[in-house]
Amino acid sequence: MPTLRELQAAFARALHGDASGAEAWVEAGGFAPERRLGIYRHNVDAIAAGYLRAAFPAVTRLGGGDYLEGLARDYRLAHPSRSGNLHDFGAGFADFLAAQLRETPYDFIADVAHLEWAYQDVLVAASARNFDLEAFLAIPPEAHETLVFNLAPSVRRVASRYPIYALWAANRAEDAEGTPIDLQAGGDCLLLYRGAGGAQVIELDAPTDAFVGALLQRASLGQAMAALEAVDPQRDPAAVLFELIQSGRIDGFEPA
Amino acid sequence: MRGTSALPLGAQALPVQTGIGLRALHHDDLLATKPPIGWLEAHSENYFPAGGSQPQALERLRAHYPIALHGVGLSLGSTDPLSSTHLAHLARIVERFEPSIVSEHLSFGAFDGIHYNDLLPLPYTRECVAHLVSRISAVQDRLRRPILVENASCYLRYRADEMSEAEFVSAVARQAGCGVLLDINNIYVNARNHGLDAQAYIEAIPVELVGEMHLAGHTVNRHDGHDILIDTHIGAPCAAVLALYVRALHRFSQVPTLFEWDTDVPDLATLVAEAHRIDRVREQLDADAA
Fold first, then answer.
1. Do A25 and B160 make contact, defined as CB atoms within 8 angstroms?
2. C-alpha to C-alpha distance for A171 and B170, rounded to whole angstroms
């Protein structure tokens, strides 16, 4: 008789397509053991596909038909879930798609997947703290440039050479009509965050993107200002900073 | 154990009524209309993230309804180490939401670090009973409260089985000091799939162990000339499952029931109407007994 560990090892192999070990330990009962194990393999694939459809609705529509059903098994085998919480399962999907679609006319779908995963992440990210304006104002102005500003936990940045926002907006709803989008219409640089009104997606202009990009890399305010000025010397970095604070996208600061 | 006998201080008791599974698409409707239903059961893992609208909605809903937390991802039966991260998340939300009941499944879902996010079947062996008892005890110690464990639907049986499923479930609960969440649809599904006597199963479960019951719909698939029932949680329970539920009510009359509908989830009004229909089954039984 196998041990519990041995039985589970054989069952796991069956879920990966090799039922030869587990078959001998399963009662037939008028129905072949391989077929019985196949029900579980099918269920696990269906759970993966159902999850991906829910988390990546625009990718599902853009792929068309049973696109995700076909991919779900390959994805779960290549990037198996490492958590009992299924939410985490989608973290590697956009990169998986990018590898699948590289140098094909459909590589834009992977960029839409990056946007959809960022959106899922924003929905469940920890809430922002209240920015301590009083503490900030107590710091001598000459020391401001040495501070490192913290973006709120929900802030994500997604960029693509394709118009991914339009692609996503046109295809994410269950009843979306799939309005044609010109793939050559120019790329997007997007900031996602969760504010009082829920998850938000806004377009970043180039100077703000440079500023936010620096903050995401934990640059000091002085370095972030230099990055912004390199793109647009006329842009006021203080205005950009305070807009980010006011909107809750920056929720704290600390010394460099 | 009764459903109301293992409450942490401050938790509301679950009424002996039918509750419904809480799904995010019903949050707003529930908060706006507050329909008269007994209680709500939330999937624990959906509330693991500290931020976002889901935990906020549950905070608001628990002001109006008693809450139970039902986990699907702890993998009690796995021979991998118990996930301290998963357990820490569970402990945090138990502390935050003060549910009347915390429950999990008698199944495994992970092997060698890979999670299949499904409820995979366990063998009914003494080794597996001892393994589960050890794991459930660890969970209860961490949560500082007893939990309920649910009998799972199964599409196969192992040759290694040393006891019946009812004996297995009872042995685990007795030795671990936990309660049983008796899923009537799962008993029916397993009885049909494996040629077992569903009524005998119910008769074999000690009354004092059962703290909650589940009801759901299933799907009948046909393979190689055989029907195989799949626990899809779709639609209302069929007449045969309701008949089995009536038998269960004769034994477990004082425990709350949950109606689950997870596939092609309908609007809230449909769910509530079905919960009320199940309530009337119990009420009729009570009236007949009076």
1. yes
2. 50
